[in-house]
Amino acid sequence: MMSGEGEEKVVCVTGASGFVASWLVKLLLQRGYTVKATVRDPNSPKTEHLRELDGAKERLHLFKANLLEEGSFDSAVDGCDGVFHTASPVIFLSDNPQADIVDPAVMGTLNVLRSCAKVHSIKRVVLTSSIGAMLLNETPMTPDVVIDETWFSNPVLCKENKEWYSLAKTLAEEAAWKFAKENGIDLVAIHPGTVIGPFFQPILNFGAEVILNLINGDQSFAFPYVFVEIRDVVYAHIRALEVPKASGRYLLAGSVAQHSDILKFLHEHYPTLLRSGKLEEKYQPTIKVSQERAKSLGINFTPWEVGVRGCIESLMEKGFLS
Prior knowledge:
The chain is of the alpha/beta class. It has helices at 19-30, 48-51, 56-59, 74-77, 97-117, 132-135, 155-160, 164-183, 206-215, 230-242, 259-269, 292-296, 304-317; strands spanning 10-14, 34-39, 60-64, 82-85, 124-128, 146-147, 187-192, 194-196, 225-229, 248-252, 255-257, 288-289.
């Protein structure tokens, strides 16, 4: 497998205008990689932040690709040493979840892998999955239970609970492992919790929406937040490609934060931003997450407070908060 930094190495990043992928492109360029990045429309204003990155003029090439179109990733992955498949809809509610969420995730993953199977230079594919592909199963969430890489979400439970994003991620990962095994592809899957931190893409990412909603007084979410800072996520992706012995699944869970912890932090550091003056204590179950495998990649997790602060600064800079 690839070792060392990316001098003269070529990689593909799918869905490059997204939050994680934008940071991934940025750090790959910093490390000397040539990046072939897929987006829905290379001429869209949503790609300008990528063109402005250091090294982009020399080593970033944008490709038009459609998750639902077989063969549309062929030219982007051709000649690559590694591929990061991050493209997938981050949508939670839909009138047609199969068409809007599940199909693009599953068929998109298979279309990318089909393109990769044609290219002999590709040494590894890194799939961006989610903690959502782990959490929804029959295991009771008691304080002594530790969530780790042996956990798989149950598609039946996902459907029953209308957890369409988790369903999509679960089925996409399942399809990816099956295809990789049948076609001899070296696959690694990354499973981040809620990713927070500074952002430079123009569209709000899910983690930023979570923080913005909390600031605006939305207290409907009654489960602990499993946060992970964006740079930890991106570094884990790069390590998953560069470390020869990396394999299997990696859960990225920097810290578990209770609703009340986050509100206290906001109250102390950003009191003028909070729309609701009162702090409501909410009961939330305590959960534990394993960091062992992630640490074996060399990941030292950043405290959630740093991620929240970075996120808020970006929200203010971009005019989402005043």
